[in-house]
Write a structure and sequence with these properties.
Shape: elongated
Helix content: 40-55%
Strand order of the largest sheet: 1-2-3
Strand content: under 5%
Largest sheet: 3 strands, antiparallel
Bound molecules: zinc ion
């Protein structure tokens, strides 16, 4: 389940379904949006299994739902669900390696679930942080927080001091929220070095900086 955001599997490929519905020569990119949606609907309806993420289980589309078992025993999966283990497409799917986090951005849009993604972000309270799209935001409407996070993730920001500063800021706020003091907090070593350098140049400047961003005591 951690390998894919898909809701199920085991259906023929979109290319195969498109050929079956239209013609042998048809290419996916030649189809209109409406026809592509039709192929996708058909693919979902032909799935052999569905992924039940909330219960961490995979069910056959032919699941019997009821299973007889002795009192006190945990029920086994039904015979239809157990048969999935001998289905070639299922065996291939469960043997796939979990892709590296860095490669997750290459998952084709067609296989992502933007609605689920948005709900997930809201659930974790980070929606506002990553997608504060509004008219007054510059150029592409992306939140500066989103840009910052993306650039940290793709390694554009090489400065460990900068990322250390953000870590310090997040940690400091966490401690404040928990009613704890930010004294004796441990900081990233490059951020510590930066603080030492700044305080050696100007103690006053460092104290102002520390008040906002945290940093070791003088
Ligand atoms: Zn079942």
């Amino acid at each position: 389940m951690a390998r894919t955001p898909a809701s199920g599997g085991g259906a023929p490929s979109r290319a195969w379904i498109a050929k079956e519905l239209f013609s042998d020569e048809v290419q996916w990119c030649d189809l209109t949006d409406k026809d592509q949606r039709m192929v996708i609907r058909r693919q979902v309806s032909l799935q052999k299994w569905k992924v039940g993420r909330s219960v961490s289980a995979i069910f056959s589309m032919d699941c019997h739902c009821d299973i007889l078992t002795l009192e006190g025993n945990d029920p086994e999966p039904c015979s239809a669900c157990q048969k999935l283990l001998s289905l070639h497409a299922f065996q291939v799917a469960i043997r796939c390696q979990i892709p590296d986090d860095k490669k997750m951005k290459f998952v084709p849009k067609a296989y992502r679930d933007p609605d689920l993604g948005q709900i997930y972000l809201k659930y974790h309270g980070v929606w506002e942080l990553v997608e504060q799209a509004s008219e007054d935001l510059p150029d592409d409407g992306q939140s500066p927080y989103l840009k910052f996070a993306q650039r940290c993730a793709d390694g554009t920001y090489k400065s460990e001091t900068l990322t250390g500063m953000v870590q310090a800021l997040v940690l400091k706020q966490k401690r404040v929220d928990a009613g704890k003091s930010s004294r004796n907090m441990k900081y990233d070593s490059s951020f510590d070095q930066f603080c030492d350098l700044l305080s050696s140049i100007s103690k006053r400047a460092y104290l102002t900086f520390q008040k906002h961003f945290g940093g070791s005591g003088l």
